[in-house]
Amino acid sequence: MDPRFDLFGNDVAGRFAQRFANAGQVITRSPLPASTQELVSLRASQINGCGWCVDMHTKEAAAAGETAVRLHLVATWRESTVFTEAERAALALAEEGSRLADAHPGVSDEAWARVREHYDDDQLAALICLVALINAANRLAVIVHQRGGSYEAGMLARMTG
């Protein structure tokens, strides 16, 4: 399956991508740990079936020093021992915030209480914005059939910078 449309080569999409990347920089520069950002982005992308984003976030996380074990186990984080309680809370929020169309009631009070235990207001704001942003990115890539496999760490920063 070839990509349907070149989001990176179109002027309108390129201008949007620049603003999208700028919004992402707010999150990147936030006090939310970078490893948590990548794990959340990876998990949401797995849920949404976005090969491009799974490829990107796996490679970016690995380049930043994330272990292969944790990257391989993020899809089964509930049955894994390698994630902190804070990361587990963030992954739960990401899952519930990504599955809104699956007849899910939204983010449960339990998931909300768990993230409040581990994150301050600025970190929580970044986490909420990240879940929204990665879900939007997943949809962009899935709609145009942007496939995973060719991404290289740092590529997106070079394309939008």
Automatic annotation (TrEMBL):
Residues 17-96 form the Carboxymuconolactone decarboxylase-like domain. It holds the Pfam family CMD. PANTHER family: 4-CARBOXYMUCONOLACTONE DECARBOXYLASE FAMILY PROTEIN (AFU_ORTHOLOGUE AFUA_6G11590), BLL7811 PROTEIN. This is Carboxymuconolactone decarboxylase family protein.
